[in-house]
């Protein structure tokens, strides 16, 4: 009984004192922001037809749908061309800055707003990867995903070094960014632009208020009990969001696998064979013909896909088997990206799978990237990016204004 109580207390301490999975959440942040950024850049010439005023899904139709389902999109605030260009440009900018990890807390919120605004404006655009990106953009808001591999982590390391030398550290960018976004939030709320949806506006206001509270506590209480309490709450929220991301990935594979088992097309192999001969899914016809020419290959791909998807959630209890199936699934998504011409769906799924990557592998990967970066010619001094190991305390993760 004492051992059980000790194990429970250790588990509670770990969940409350540490933001778990710093490397995994960093990879998820980089993966999804890069996926959305690349998609927006690829569709830049066609943006008005996909999500703007020139699309077949008109502004009036979108307005009727949003009014019926209460979804959130800033593109319904105005049907002007200029407003659409502003929203699209902000979506591109927030994706790039979130990928780099600059003012990550603020950029994660703006990233979510950009994803929801564009996707809810034209719900019939995209593929299954859009649904995953839609959900993950909301989950990322609750994570402390800038602990490593981010400009925020570098800034936090530089600030700690300055404090250790007895220097005073002042952040002017964070409060200025908070003030500007607060003014915008107040203005659009008073204008009645967020009446259709309640969840997202409440989340925006909550994050904005928490940012101010965090800054005030850090400025007045330093490392005292109020700051410790906020760190505990932030760690609990982060770990809960990380658990939801993992559960979401398992749910996607489990439901996909079990539905495939019930479908006759997956039982006789035609679910793999026919898409390879559709023009829409055949960017490389010769490669598709080569793969579909062998009945054995089609059978292995068909049953292998179902087996891996059904089995993966159960392999989480065995690290070695999980890592093998994880490599298989990522390889399968890479093949889908090339053979079926679905790069962004594959990138989204690979980013979701990355939450299960082992920490040792990610640390080695970060070390190699750091060594490759150090070989590049550079000017002036540089504070090393803390990507080799996770911060030992929550204070190392700058979660104040925009971090």
Distance between the termini: 42 Å
Low-pLDDT runs of 5+ residues are 385-403
Q: Biggest β-sheet: count, sense, barrel? A: none
Number of strands: 0
Shape: globular
Tally of DSSP helical segments = 18
Task: Output the structural class.
Answer: mainly alpha
Series of secondary-structure elements, N-terminal to C-terminal: HHHHHHHHHHHHHHHHHH
Please report which band the strand proportion falls in: under 5%, 5-15%, 15-25%, 25-35%, 35-45% or over 45%.
Answer: under 5%
Please give the radius of gyration in angstroms: 23 Å
Mean pLDDT: 86
Fraction of residues in helices? Answer: 55-70%
Report on this model:
The protein has 403 residues and is mostly helical. Helix content is 70%, strand content 0%. The model is unreliable at 385-403 (pLDDT under 50).
Secondary structure elements and pairings:
Layout: H1 2-17, H2 22-42, H3 47-50, H4 59-69, H5 81-100, H6 104-121, H7 128-139, H8 151-164, H9 173-190, H10 199-220, H11 225-262, H12 264-268, H13 270-273, H14 285-292, H15 295-315, H16 319-339, H17 343-353, H18 359-375
Helix pairs in contact: 2-5, 2-17, 5-6, 6-7, 7-17, 9-10, 11-15, 15-16, 16-17
């Amino acid at each position: 009984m004492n051992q059980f109580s000790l194990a429970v207390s250790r588990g509670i301490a770990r969940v409350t004192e540490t933001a778990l999975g710093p490397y995994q959440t960093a990879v998820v942040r980089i993966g999804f922001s890069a996926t959305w950024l690349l998609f927006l850049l690829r569709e830049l010439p066609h943006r008005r037809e996909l999500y703007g005023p020139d699309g077949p899904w008109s502004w009036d139709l979108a307005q009727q749908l949003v009014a019926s389902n209460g979804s959130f999109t800033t593109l319904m605030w105005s049907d002007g061309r200029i407003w659409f260009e502003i929203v699209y440009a902000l979506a591109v900018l927030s994706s790039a800055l979130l990928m780099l990890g600059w003012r990550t807390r603020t950029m994660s919120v703006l990233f979510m707003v950009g994803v929801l605004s564009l996707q809810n404006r034209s719900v019939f655009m995209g593929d299954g990867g859009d649904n995953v990106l839609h959900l993950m953009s909301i989950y990322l808001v609750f994570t402390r995903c800038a602990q490593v591999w981010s400009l925020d982590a570098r800034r936090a390391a530089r600030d700690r070094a300055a404090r250790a030398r007895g220097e005073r550290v002042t952040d002017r960018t964070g409060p200025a960014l908070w003030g500007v976004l607060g003014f915008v939030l107040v203005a659009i709320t008073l204008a009645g632009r967020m009446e259709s949806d309640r969840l997202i506006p409440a989340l925006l206001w909550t994050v904005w208020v928490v940012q101010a509270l965090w800054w005030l506590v850090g400025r007045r209480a330093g490392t005292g009990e109020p700051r410790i309490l906020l760190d505990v709450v932030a760690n609990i929220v982060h770990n809960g969001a990380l658990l939801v991301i993992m559960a979401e990935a398992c749910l996607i594979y489990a439901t996909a696998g079990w539905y495939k088992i019930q479908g006759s097309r997956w039982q006789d192999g035609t679910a793999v064979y026919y898409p390879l001969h559709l023009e829409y899914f055949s960017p490389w016809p010769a490669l598709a013909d080569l793969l579909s020419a062998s009945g054995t290959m089609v059978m292995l791909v068909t049953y292998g896909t179902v087996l891996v998807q059904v089995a993966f959630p159960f392999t989480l209890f065995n690290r070695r088997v999980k890592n093998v199936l994880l490599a298989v699934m990522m390889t399968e998504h890479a093949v889908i990206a090339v053979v079926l011409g679905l790069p962004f769906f594959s990138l989204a799924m690979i980013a979701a799978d990355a939450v299960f990557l082992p920490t040792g592998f990610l640390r080695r990967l970060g070390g190699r990237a750091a060594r490759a970066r150090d070989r590049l010619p550079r000017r002036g001094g540089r504070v090393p990016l803390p990507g080799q190991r996770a911060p030992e305390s929550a204070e190392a993760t700058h979660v104040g204004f925009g971090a």
